[in-house]
Structures are given as C-alpha cells and as structure tokens.
Design goal:
Layout lengths: L2 H12 L8 E3 L9 E4 L14 H4 L58 E11 L12 H14 L4 E2 L20 H18 L11 E5 L2 H15 L3 H4 L1 E5 L23 H13 L1 H9 L1 E2 L5 H18 L10 H18 L7 H17 L11 H4 L11 E6 L1 H10 L22 H4 L5 E11 L2 E10 L2 E2 L16 E2 H14 L2 H6 L29
Parallel strand pairs: 3-8, 5-6, 5-8
Antiparallel strand pairs: 1-2, 3-9, 4-7, 9-10, 10-11, 10-12
Bound molecules: 2-acetamido-2-deoxy-beta-D-glucopyranose (12 copies).
The site of one 2-acetamido-2-deoxy-beta-D-glucopyranose has 5 residues, from helix 3.
Keywords: Hydrolase, Signal
Protein name: 3-phytase
InterPro entries: Acid_Pase_AS (IPR033379), His_Pase_clade-2 (IPR000560), His_PPase_superfam (IPR029033)
C-alpha cells in the first residue's frame, strides 16, 4: 500500500470515535460511588510510525542528556557546541524548571521555617504530544506537500535539504507520546516527594480531575502512576470532565464560553511576526527547493517539524536547519499566541479562566459554588464529585486553559503587553517557561506563625518558580512570595466581577461591547462595554 494511503486509513480508523454518551463506572471495584470515567470525546487522534533512533539519529556524538530518550543535542545552523535551542520551543519545550522566570524569588524557594503546608492545588498541562493537526494543516501539511510532490515528480530538493526527497512524514496526531508519558510520570514522582504527606490522614479517596481529551486523560494516568504507584486506581478516583459542545468544564472552558476563542488577537500578531523572523529562512530554503514556491506559512509549518519530530520520533534533522535567532523568533511566536489568544491581551482571557478561580475559592473556603460560570454544577455542587476538604487537588488540562486561569488569578507579573514586530528581551511572559509540555502550577496554602497567632498564606509556583506575589494580587504585605490568603481571596472576588463572564462569553460584539484590538487586562474595559448592553 502507498504510504500516504495507509496513513489516511490510520487517520480514518482512529478519528471514528464519535461523541458517546457519558459512561459512569465503578473504576476500582471498591468505590461506593460511580464516577464519570469513560466519557468518550477523546478528540481526533492518529498513531504515528514507531521511532527508531538507533538508525535515524545521525549525530556523531556520545553526549547523553540524562533522563531523556529523545535528542537534546542538535545545534542550530551556525551555532557552537554550547548553543541550546531546546528551551526555545515555546509550548513544545520539554519540561524543565522555569529557573529564570522570577530570579528575584530564587532565594525563597524553600518555605519559611515558621510555616506549615496545609493544602496544595496542582494545575497540570499534558505532556509532549503529536501535533493536533492531521495532514491538512501545520507540519503535516508540509509533509503531505513533499510526499505528493515527490510522487508526482514536481518536487525536488538539493544541498542540505536533499534528505527531503526521501522524507516520509510519519508523525501521528494529538496523542500523548512516550516523552510526554515520561514527563508526567516523573512529575507524579516529584509531586509525591513534595506533597505526599498531605494525604496521609485522608479517610476517603482523593478525587483527581482531568478533561476527556486523549492526551490530557493519558497524562493524568501517568501522573497518578508516578504519585500513587502501580495500583493508583485503587487509591484515588479519577474524574473525567467531558470536552464537548454543550458541556461545562472549567478545565476546558471553550464550550461554556462560546466567545472565548473568537477574538484570536494572538494569531493575528504571530502572523505579522512570522513575516519578520522567518523571512531569511524562506530565502535560504527556497534556494534548495525546486518545483514548490514556499510561503511564510509553509516556513512556519516547516520549523514546527523539529520539536514535533523530536518529541514523536526522538530525533529530527530539521532542528539544525534554523539559526539560534530563528529559534528565538519561534519562541516569541508562541508568546504572542498565548498572551493574545488566552492571556492578558485577550478580552475573554479572564472570563475563560474564572471558573477555576471560583473552584479554588470554594476549595480553600469550604464553600459550595454559588454564582456559577463555566462549572458543571451537577458535579461541582456535589461533594462526592467536588470535595471541599481535600488537602491535595490535582487537575489536568491544556496550555490555553492554564494561561486563561493565570490571567483570572490576575498574575500581572506575566501580563506583558507584547508587540507583533519586535520581542522585548526582558518580557516575563514566555510560553516556554509558563506552558511547556508537562507544565504545572502549584497553589500552596500555608499556615505561618506570626507571634502567638497562626494565619493562612498563599504561595504560587509556576514550573517551580515562586511567583513574587504583590499588590496586583491584593497582597498588602508581601515578602518571600507569600501573601495573606484573606487578601488574596478578596482580590479574586474582584476578578470575578471584572471578568464580566456572561457579557464576555455570550454578548455580541458591536451590540453589547466593542472590541477591535488586543486589550491589556485580559477583560473588557468599561469603555468597551455598551451601557445599554443586553447580555
Ligand atoms: C463497585 O464494585 C464493587 C465490587 O464489585 C461492589 O461491591 C460495589 O457495590 C460497586 N459500587 C457501585 C456503586 O456500583
Ligand atoms: C566522530 O567523532 C569522532 C570524535 O569525537 C571522530 O574521531 C570521528 O572521526 C567522527 N566520525 C565521523 C564519521 O565523523
Ligand atoms: C496529497 O495527496 C492526497 C491523496 O491524493 C490528497 O488527499 C491530499 O490533499 C494531497 N495533499 C496535498 C497537500 O497536496
Ligand atoms: C503534484 O503534487 C503537488 C503537491 O501536492 C501539487 O501541488 C501539484 O499540483 C501536483 N502536480 C501534478 C502535476 O499532479
Ligand atoms: C512511510 O511511513 C509509513 C507509515 O506511515 C510506513 O508504512 C512506510 O513503510 C514508510 N515508507 C518508507 C519508504 O519508509
Ligand atoms: C495526621 O493525624 C495525626 C493524628 O491525628 C496528627 O498527629 C498528624 O499531624 C496528622 N498528619 C498530617 C500530615 O496532618
Ligand atoms: C455534567 O457532567 C455530567 C457527567 O459527566 C454530564 O452527564 C452532564 O451532561 C454535564 N452537564 C453539563 C451541562 O456539562
Ligand atoms: C513559482 O513562482 C515563479 C515566479 O513567480 C513561477 O514562474 C513558477 O511557475 C512558480 N512555481 C510553482 C511551482 O508554482
Ligand atoms: C467544611 O464544612 C462542613 C459543613 O459545611 C463541615 O462539616 C466540615 O467539617 C468543614 N471542613 C473543614 C475542613 O473545615
Ligand atoms: C452572586 O451574585 C449576586 C448578584 O450579582 C451578588 O449579589 C452576590 O454577592 C454573589 N454571591 C457571591 C457569593 O459572590
Ligand atoms: C452550564 O453553563 C451555563 C452557562 O453558564 C449555565 O446556564 C448552565 O446552568 C450550566 N449547566 C450546568 C449543568 O452546570
Ligand atoms: C451526589 O452524588 C452521589 C453519588 O452519585 C449521590 O448519591 C447524591 O445523591 C448526590 N447528591 C446530590 C445533592 O445531588
């Protein structure tokens, strides 16, 4: 069978899952209640060809990066031995601690001795995955163009790019890959060491939540194996929240907030930026490509092959075909996308993330959610499915939802206003540091002795970097990254109001509000809201 045809069949088979009705099951056989587990809605997925780096890795180097099965050694075009590009992959960066995100708090990584850890809320992104697009967009589109062009004899590559004449694009679609499984297992182990004792006195099994998307669901499974052990399913209840039209879900709020993804200012900005940082690469590549006139969009599809092939196949020849400066441009591309589509530059950013903020408030306050937004209240108003007395919570989600949620927490520390034409080298908002593969945010609730009394504090870590909480989060006094929990909660109430959830999510642009360009607070401003609005 022709390779393209066989891949297409694989795609057809694996995408034929259709939305099934929710199945609630007794996962462990020891539970006294049933949980939504087998809910369907895995999303479109396709397997890829299995890797074989023993044959495909052509680097003559014995360098081995500890802990990685995949290549982390390739150097950029014109780079020297010490140039690293693997931290420039934006949201496709392999997990690493965000060491330079908040250097000012590096001295405060360990908890003050006067404090005791009371509770932790972990928000986690899935690990490394295949591209979400199939063969009709993204890197797969370039793969298909080369395959078809080679077959019909119109495409020919020379020089450094001659390997394209034999390219057999075999990367799958949207599934968690082995590197991603490792990231999540490792994270589960690490979190066990960090927080395991919080669960020592639990009398009921903790509820761990995940969305139904295949890569997210599988990520939660690997994490729980790392955290709880091989019999994880007997030690917790995994609750799967459906990602589908008509379903409310705080970990994938796009269906509960229909306007949420309509104002994609990030996509507009990155298209501008691609014309700048991929201009030279386009000229360089075109010299060795015949029978195909490359566009800037093609170049963007091409540069993405490197991180995806590395994650899926363990090695990629594409990594060394771009300069360090181009990789830095690629990194900024991801920053524009997330800040503009989901963060402080999106008018719906806060509204999309506010549902999780309300859940956080419910969990730290032991209160049922009243004015619901994107929650599935059938689950969230039932303590079996949304317990309020757990000491460790873990929720598995996507990159965009994490950026929405950090915006709703009003973490203005990462609220940089970004320009489409030129990166600010000092920006804090970097997708590589905030939402790499396997990203995690930990909200730690501490009790700290202050004289005779003991009062609750909050501390937030983004990929291990302690956020320097400040007045933006309502903290009247802040030091060591700690903030009084009551100050912090007060500010979250303001954020709930400022999100204008109903208006932002269901209003009509032009009638209820007017938005034409990126915003700076992740919300509709008063000037943008029409006073006679109907929503
Ligand atoms: C779950 O399974 C166990 C063992 O089969 C059974 O004893 C228990 O009643 C079941 N619980 C429910 C809610 O079905
Ligand atoms: C591989 O590298 C070693 C030195 O590290 C060198 O001696 C050898 O010639 C290289 N082989 C090839 C095929 O380049
Ligand atoms: C490649 O060929 C397949 C099969 O003929 C076709 O479905 C697909 O659209 C083509 N893709 C491109 C990018 O030309
Ligand atoms: C050959 O394949 C390329 C890539 O899919 C396509 O753009 C082109 O039209 C095809 N040419 C012929 C003569 O079939
Ligand atoms: C190309 O990849 C497909 C799987 O996607 C595989 O079946 C086929 O053997 C590969 N062809 C070559 C020439 O390696
Ligand atoms: C667990 O309970 C025991 C006895 O009530 C108590 O001494 C201990 O501090 C508790 N452990 C934790 C981690 O809360
Ligand atoms: C709430 O969750 C349950 C369990 O998955 C599901 O059956 C129901 O359709 C959901 N409702 C909404 C509005 O999301
Ligand atoms: C590429 O562009 C050149 C100049 O505009 C044109 O002559 C040529 O036909 C184009 N080639 C393809 C394959 O579209
Ligand atoms: C939470 O509130 C319920 C009553 O609403 C109470 O029974 C329970 O003890 C409280 N839990 C904690 C940890 O305060
Ligand atoms: C719920 O909304 C109503 C009306 O906007 C408001 O008065 C009330 O304070 C809100 N309750 C909470 C707990 O936020
Ligand atoms: C889902 O969200 C909508 C819009 O906020 C709300 O009207 C509806 O009651 C919610 N459904 C459930 C089951 O929570
Ligand atoms: C909560 O869920 C449990 C288990 O499914 C069920 O028995 C109980 O009736 C529910 N409680 C409410 C208030 O809906």
């Amino acid at each position: 069978m022709l390779p393209v045809a066989s891949l297409l069949i694989a795609v057809l088979i694996s995408t034929s899952f259709c939305a099934e009705s929710t199945k609630w099951s007794n996962v462990t056989g020891t539970s006294n209640t049933v949980f939504p587990t087998d809910v369907g809605n895995l999303g479109d997925t396709a397997p890829g060809l299995a890797p074989m780096t023993a044959q495909d890795d052509t680097l003559n180097s014995t360098e081995f990066v500890k802990g990685y099965g995949i290549d982390m050694r390739s150097k950029p075009l014109g780079g020297n031995e010490s140039t690293d590009i693997y931290g420039n992959f934006g949201p496709y960066t392999t997990w690493r601690p965000a060491e330079s995100l908040f250097p000012e708090t590096n001295p405060y990584r360990s908890m003050p001795p006067s404090c005791q850890l009371r509770q932790v809320h972990i928000l986690h992104r899935h690990g490394a995955r295949y591209p979400t697009d199939g063969m009709d967009d993204g890197p797969g589109l370039f793969g298909a163009m080369v395959k078809n062009g080679t077959r019909n004899g119109t495409f020919h590559a020379t020089g450094d790019l001659a390997f394209l004449n034999h390219l057999n694009y075999t990367i799958g679609q949207a599934l968690l890959v082995h590197q991603g499984a490792q990231e999540l297992f490792d994270s589960g182990v690490k979190h066990y060491y960090e927080y395991g004792r919080l669960l020592s006195n639990m009398t009921t099994k903790p509820v761990i939540r995940t969305t139904s998307s295949s890569r997210v669901l599988d990520s939660s499974r690997y994490w729980t194996l790392g955290f709880f052990g091989w019999d994880a399913n007997e030690r917790m209840n995994l609750e799967v929240l459906t990602e589908a039209k008509g379903q409310n879900n705080t970990l994938e709020p796009k269906y509960a907030c229909p306007n949420g993804k309509k104002f994609a200012f990030g996509d507009q900005m990155r298209k501008e930026w691609q014309k700048v940082y991929l201009k030279d690469a386009l000229k360089r590549w075109q010299k060795n490509i015949h029978g195909l006139n490359l566009t800037i969009e093609d170049m963007f599809n091409i540069i993405q092959v490197c991180p995806y092939e590395t994650a899926g196949m363990g090695f990629s020849k594409f990594c060394s075909l771009f300069t360090k400066e181009e990789w830095e441009g690629f990194e900024y591309d991801g920053d524009l996308k997330f800040q503009g589509n989901s963060g402080f530059m999106s008018p719906m950013g806060r509204a999309m993330g506010i549902g999780y903020v309300q859940e956080f408030l419910a969990r730290v306050s032991n209160h049922t959610i009243t004015n619901a937004t994107s929650q599935n209240t059938t689950l969230d108003r039932n303590e079996t499915y949304f317990p309020l007395d757990q000491r460790l919570y873990a929720d598995f989600t996507h990159d965009s939802a994490i950026v929405n949620i950090l915006t709703a927490f009003n973490l203005t520390q990462i609220g940089d206003h970004l320009k489409a034409t030129k990166p600010n080298k000092n920006r804090r908002f970097r997708a590589s540091a905030i939402v790499p593969f396997g990203a995690r945010v930990a909200f730690e609730v501490l009790e700290c002795a202050k004289g005779e009394e003991s009062t609750p504090f909050i501390r937030i870590k983004i990929n291990d970097a302690v956020v320097p909480l400040n007045e933006g989060q309502g903290c009247r006094q802040s030091h060591d990254g700690l903030c009084s929990l009551s100050d912090f909660k007060k500010q979250l109430q303001d954020s709930i109001k400022a999100s204008h959830f109903d208006l932002a999510c269901f209003g009509k642009n032009g009638t209820d509000f007017s938005v034409t360009s990126p915003v700076s607070q992740g919300q509709l401003s008063n000037a943008q809201i029409h006073t006679n609005q109907t929503a």
